């Protein structure tokens, strides 16, 4: 599958502010960048840095006044996805260094507070079967409701309210998986089929010796997901982090299949 991605961010900064942007598709074995270009107006020099876990890159800049970022890319997806249910969990003592931090609670994924619930609800399941059941539970119990959450909403808040958007679904699945001893990280991505089109959040779990994509919201076709960056939770994968006040003027994301 080949996808065309177009993203446009139009903001205004009343005062100078450092900005960390993460909207470029990552070059990975299962997603090949055919072409891509990021242009940013209204900023100082761009300084690219590596993304977390070596996935993608972020870009530092100093913004003031009008800020306009335009990103376009063509990406070829070369993804083979094994059946989640058949994938074994990896014993904690056998985990690689990159997976270990994703066993622990984080700001938005309070996995330690779900250990009893996860043991009672999914205790008879293991590995990919447990993760599949968790994703099914979340999809069935939550209502997708834009505006029902904000930047302070955590997995516990979502569990109580039973509503939210893609990042809330992802936080809850990551918290459940970590509570079961399965490393889980959040993924920022472009997703073909996401409606309404926007930046998308989903989860990768460490099963069978590799990271496996799971989307508890079911908004995206996993064969049409283009990863941007990964991290512990929404703190690490924000498409734009501004260290100062930014006024949103307009924002758009479009993902088209072109093959």
Structural description of this entry:
This protein has 259 residues and is α+β, with helices and mostly antiparallel strands. The protein folds into two domains: 2-78 and 240-257, Immunoglobulin-like (Sandwich); 84-236, Roll (C8orf32 fold), CATH 3.10.620.30. It has five helices and twelve strands. It has helices at residues 115-122, 127-141, 155-161, 166-179, 234-237; strands at residues 2-21, 31-43, 47-50, 57-77, 143-144, 163-164, 184-191, 200-207, 210-214, 225-231, 240-243, 247-257. Strand 7 and strand 8 form a beta hairpin. Helix 2 (127-141) packs antiparallel against helix 4 (166-179) and helix 3 packs across helix 4 (166-179). The longest helix is centred in the middle third of the chain and has 15 residues, at 127-141. The chain is globular. The N and C termini lie close together (6 Å). The relative contact order is 0.24.
């Amino acid at each position: 599958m080949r996808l065309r991605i177009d993203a446009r961010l139009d903001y205004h900064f009343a005062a100078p502010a450092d900005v960390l942007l993460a909207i470029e598709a990552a070059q990975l074995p299962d997603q090949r960048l055919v072409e891509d270009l990021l242009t940013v107006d209204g900023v100082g020099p761009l300084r690219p840095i590596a993304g977390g876990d070596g996935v993608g890159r972020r870009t530092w800049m100093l913004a003031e006044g009008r800020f306009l970022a335009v990103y376009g890319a063509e990406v070829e997806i070369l993804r083979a996805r094994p059946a989640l249910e058949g994938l074994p969990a990896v014993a904690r003592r056998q985990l690689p260094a990159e997976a270990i931090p994703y066993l622990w609670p984080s700001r938005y994924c309070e996995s330690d507070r779900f250990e009893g619930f996860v043991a009672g609800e999914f205790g008879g399941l293991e590995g990919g079967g447990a993760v599949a059941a968790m994703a099914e539970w979340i999809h069935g119990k939550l209502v997708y409701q834009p505006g029902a959450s904000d930047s302070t909403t955590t997995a516990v808040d979502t569990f109580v309210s039973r509503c939210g958007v893609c990042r809330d679904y992802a936080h809850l699945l990551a918290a459940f998986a970590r509570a079961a001893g399965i490393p889980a990280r959040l993924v920022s991505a472009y997703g073909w089929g996401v409606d309404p089109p926007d930046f998308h959040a989903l989860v990768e779990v460490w099963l069978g010796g590799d990271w496996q994509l799971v989307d508890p919201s079911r908004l995206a076709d996993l064969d049409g997901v283009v990863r941007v960056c990964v991290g512990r939770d929404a703190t690490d994968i924000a498409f734009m982090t501004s260290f100062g006040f930014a006024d949103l003027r307009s924002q758009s994301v479009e993902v088209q299949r072109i093959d």
